[in-house]
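Hello again,

I reread your note about wanting to compare the complex against the isolated chains. To keep things tidy I'm splitting this into two emails, and this first one only covers the full assembly. Below are the input lines as submitted, including protein chains and any nucleic acid or small-molecule components. They are followed by the predicted structure of everything together. The single-chain runs will come separately.
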Amino acid sequence: MDIPYTTTPREDTGLYNAKVGIWLFLASEVMLFGALFSSYILLRVGADWWPAPRSILNIPIGTFNTAVLIISSVTVVLAWASLKMNQLSKFKLYQGITILCALIFVGVKSVEYTEKWKHYEIWLNDGSNYSGHIDVNGKHNPFFYTHNKLVSEGVTEITFTKDPHKYGDPLPEKAAGGGEAHAAEAHAHESMVIKTEDIKRLSAFVPAHSTYFAIYFTMTGLHALHVIGGALVMFYLWITAGSWFRSRPEQFTNRIEVSGLFWHFVDLVWIFLFPILYLM
Amino acid sequence: MSHDHSPKTAGSHDGHGDHDVSKHIRTYLLIGGFLLIGTAITVWAATIDFGSHNLNIGIGLLIATVKASLVALFFMHLISEKTAIYMFLGATVFFVTGLMVLTLFSFSDLPKDSEFLRLNPPAPAAQTEASH
Amino acid sequence: MAATTTAKTHEAHEAHHHEHHDPGFWRSYVFSSDHKVIGIQYGITSLAFLFFGFILIALMRWQLAYPGKAIPFVGGLLEAVLGEVAAGGVMSGNLYNSFGAMHGTIMVFLAIVPLAFAAFGNYVVPLQIGAPDMCFPRINMASYQCFFLGGVVMFASFFVPGGAAQAGWTSYSPLATTIPTDGQTYWLIGMVLLITSSLLGAVNFIATIIQLRAPGMTWMRLPWFVWTQFVTAFILLLAFPPLEAAGLMQLVDKVLGTSFFLPTGLMTAGGAALADVSGGGSPLLWQHLFWFLGHPEVYVLILPAMGIVAEVIANNTRKPIWGYRSLVYSVLAVGFISFIVWAHHMYLTGMGTKISTFFQTTTMIISIPSVIILTCLFISLWGGSIRFNTPMLFALSFLPMFGIGGLTGLPLGFNFSDLLLHDTYYVIAHFHYVVAPGTIFALFAGVYFWYPKITGRKMNETLGQIHFWLSLICMNLVFYPMFKQGVSGMNRRMADGGATYLGVDDVGSGELVGTPQAMIDLNVNISHAAWALGLAQLPFIFNFFWSMFAGRRVENDNPWQATTLEWQTPTPPPHGNFDKEPVVYRGPYEYSVPGAKADFIPQNQPDPA
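Full-complex prediction:
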């Protein structure tokens, strides 16, 4: 006996196996991200510090990435529809665009990440507190420094270039467009030399900075892993499309439908992540 | 998940044959357009002061929910799916809501100013103990 | 249906084509995608972990009975392997904590769940519903590989600097995050692998039960065991992901120094200074996410066991299970409600009265379907011509043992009584009655019951009975006194056997404050019983291996005269299970049907007319 309903639907459920499987998997994904969203709410409600709305991430870049994912969601469903209409070349085009969108998304995200890892907040023993960029021993904008790392490397002082508007503070009236853009304005950037012993805490905008960045990196990181995973699967289906579709068209169309469902889910998660992390 | 064996046309995945798919393409493009417009609205709405920050959050989440629903209903074909899938997705939504609501509720129900403590203020010696 | 089968496109056939031809040793036994081989792999691995978990507690029982004395026989070995923590062959507090945490973790996630759900489920469910295999055989294989890898990571954590995880199987933050051992990180990585394995398995089980039931196998004709596995799979599918999320967050806390579960103002381990973290997190968040899985997990442990017991009871009373529909609706209700009772583990965290009342209420409600299940199984015995063979003895003893475990849970479900009993030996006694003489006995029943189908030979009956009676007596000698210890207030986590809380005469009142010496002395008796329990497993271990080669051969494919489909296949079932697709004509438990020739009618036997 062979396993039935791998391609054709079962009469009483009207479903083929893989479709049941992917929906069950997505149900568990809903619980996974649901738990993270719950954590987001609780961390935010109980937070000592939470960035003011729109002050923290680059909104134009975030909007661009949202649009990229939405476009990929349209092309992925068009790719499936092309197969249903027996148009393999159109399928290849749409599937290719989807994969390209995935690459763009991950690329933009990694640029966003590295920007954060070079950007610092410093708390001094006198109670003052700034955001900006640092120079350590002639290294401009180094990654991942902390107070402990300065001490262990025997660094006695660093140069700190202050942002004109402290990152994460409420935006001044009429200053739309995100803190980063604001910071890039042509104000004079004030540089100062700070002794290591005067520093209470130094942290780049990495997960350890605060619970906001912890949940930001965890959620978007997990989401990015989903994007990469989905892109790998779609790439595999893209390069094997020709022979597979010619020999087993119905099975291949099902595979595209199932991978498409996963892709839409990834898009759907981002639709929530974008406003709660960038805008609110 | 019914146990009747009423025969249905085998081979049709979503209740519409290959012929119908071409008609759906218009819908897909339209939904894609709505989603892009929705994104623009989200970004714009975040810059408007609706009076309270909570209202801003509510409106942002509302727009996101509408967008997500469009994706789920049309791109993921949930608008015409099979009963079995509705059943376990329904259970999932119930449980994820339970997780969020009950957890939040238990955090909001921590006894900070309990009636008992207000009516029976602790003795001064015990107070220093309690303040640790 | 037949038309569909023939009309099925030939690609599925092609995909399996090469598997029919001499797959070779590796593909047959190690990297097999056949559900039966995977079931056996799960079974052997989890039995090994069950044994390993028992050894851990057997060693801990020495420390509890004779605190600070060198462990005889193996003390030197422990010192040689683990070093400083077992200096002089004495179990240190750190080692005790490691063993305690790993005993819980291994027993729950690496022994009982994989044995009850993955091993029996994989082997039996496709056979019982008349399917050729699981829906997604390769995902099934990946599930086992993740499980195995998770087990390896957990095992390896004993040998990393600082030793294995020490923060209990619940891994509460901030303790779990600040404890200075890499074992905690291994624990989290291991958990993520085990959770992934469970998720893959759960997807497979549900899809299989929905899609691959044989023609005529309607929902109300499913053996009840399949129902329990179906609900268990849903619990795993939907309750595990929040713990996976929490595990990832704790891993990030541990590795990247975030503060998901670390509050503001957290001190370092010595209490000398503020910890170098941002703070702002919530330890209670971990507890919520953990128990959102943790409590449904209890039903993951117990439901498959109940399913096995039902199968064995129906077969050995030679009459239908009483109240099949009640059982089905009850197991669905249990599964459903199990998602909204979790915070009854957290009464002591200072929860408010409203939310306590809510969880108290749901906890009491969930006991109703549980009691219905137990009652149905009890009533099923009435008027049966009971065959007292080994599987039946284990199944029968499950009923009162689980009954004790369940009923002693009620005081823990009530806020007021829980505040007193929380974290005492009472809790240990309660859940071990549910899991040890409860679930594990049911699993033994399953091993003895399905062994002939897997190997074609029966296990030795005399050795089986010895195993049963000794286990039953020792189990009760181990766990019953713990109720007494717990009620007298003995804390469950003391490496010195509770001497920390030894009672002293209160000067003012002249009354004893703390744990009476008599309760601490019980530790010695309990430990002796625990080691005797270990010895009582020797007949089983011997029987298990010996019967493979020398057990009595079964006279036919259906040695227990059973009705369900797994007994209507060749023994052992070949790849693809059934020679031809079975068709189901009747319910699962048609025993002693009036007027029938035999006292059982298999599900695939057509009506005589």
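For quick reference: Chain C touches chain A through 60 residues (CB under 8 Å).

B.
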